[in-house]
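> tool_call: predict_assembly(chains=two)
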Amino acid sequence: MIQTQIGKIILDKNSFAIVSHTSPDGDSMGSMLAVYNQLLSMGKNADVFVEEDLPMKYSFLSGFGSIKKYSISNKSYECVFVLDCGDIDRLGLCKDVLNRADVVINIDHHISNTLFGHLNLVDSNASSVGEIIYQLFKVNGYHISKEIAGCLYTSIVSDTGGFKYSNTTSITLSIVGDLINTNIDFSDIYNKIFNVKTLSQIKLMSKVTSTLELHFDNRVSILILTENMLKECNANEDDASEFINIGRDIEEVEVAILIKEKNINSCRVSLRSKKYVDVAKIASMFGGGGHIRAAGCTIEGNIDDVKESLLTILKNYFNAVI
Amino acid sequence: MIQTQIGKIILDKNSFAIVSHTSPDGDSMGSMLAVYNQLLSMGKNADVFVEEDLPMKYSFLSGFGSIKKYSISNKSYECVFVLDCGDIDRLGLCKDVLNRADVVINIDHHISNTLFGHLNLVDSNASSVGEIIYQLFKVNGYHISKEIAGCLYTSIVSDTGGFKYSNTTSITLSIVGDLINTNIDFSDIYNKIFNVKTLSQIKLMSKVTSTLELHFDNRVSILILTENMLKECNANEDDASEFINIGRDIEEVEVAILIKEKNINSCRVSLRSKKYVDVAKIASMFGGGGHIRAAGCTIEGNIDDVKESLLTILKNYFNAVI
């Protein structure tokens, strides 16, 4: 089976690179460092590479301090692990390291994976790459240390949204049960990933939520984020990345909108829906796209213009569907 | 074993009452209705009682519509299940039904449980009563229907804070895995319990977070809730029950304070800490109490007076401990 083939390569080879997609998230960070820690424990040489600055919220992960920023070089590796990456273009700069590798091992859970590796361990039923790595380690008889368990827990808890997304299965939970039995402080990890906020985020949340408007019998929520708010709160756009959920989580709301002012003549719009409105369709009317329940677009005009454009479309939409 | 003894009573008896503590939470609601649905499926007569108005957020639970508000009567039951209740005084009015029962079965997970039942199934290692009820049902060979699974999932996810509290064990997760295999929409239940907010809550959150103050190098956060805010947002105190976490979740904060104005001369104060400050001690200085990490007290004075009193104490405290 493919897991034992990968196990054999790990035994045979000595120098490894580990890469993942740009803008690494909890699953990519956790699974890269799980593989890294395992290789190190077996006396192998391994480098973990990222393209850009590291997300500091994962600094508690074992091995975080050893992660390197990739720069084009002639260094070659016997084996490259590519994790949580559906196609090689999502690797950004790090794609370069694949050109000088004997073996590329592609481990992923995206259904769209292009199977670009020499070996492809792709399971779209897995909640996360962390879940696949756990099984890879178990099949090969590796001991799951507390350090590795912390990495894999981070992967799984991140990609399942704290075990609430429908990709969570009884297999996922059984794996997590095994991980927490290593005595990791999972409560602390959970808080670090989901709850810890900066002062800037709280200030910004207060300002953004104060703009809340509801329309069409509370079925549409609109929140506004201006450049001025970001300045006043010493915040950046990342600090606002979850705010659209505030509008979406209001009980009667079907469509949640977050309008971010890009400049005086242009706004970035995020759209979410709960049950019956196809927001990808709405976004596409403005040249944007996305999924049925989560989409985005850029609309020309100032905030008031953009709000009016969206409300006009939504008015027709609600009149048509209800 | 006690589970089979309880199973025998369920078989032998015909009329059951099911009660829990006042101000029922997710664990009490879920476990009461799990037992109710099981008894009904066995052709038994069962009544679920609460003392006060039902928390509507649990209205999705199977059997919710059959729950009755207790009123003193002479009706007697062969068997009363008391769930999630450490002592009988926490039953409020519903305590009365125990006086006319042949058998009282006490199922709980509080370490302080006074073992007041004829049969006491008390396991302080269980995350929730839902977890204990699951095991009771399994030992007796009951089929876990989708409806019952929804109730038990609600119990467990509530008392573990979405599987993030340290009371979550591999046993908990293995049970939850079994429950979600019944095809319940656990993602939807999770959202209903933790994420759905009312418009009043969002408006109130915006106002309360706009009062955020940080002191002592960001180690102390203070949030204010006034009577006026409640009025303006058409909200009640319950809507603000989680707001102290906003202050606590700021990364550098050790002590989070929420000051609720009761009237012009008195405030209710909630205190939380993360790692080293004993907030029960601080609360006790004002005649209040609680736990090391979560406590409360009432302080005479207007909001500014109360803030000053707390900051004076905290100043000494930080000078002493750091």
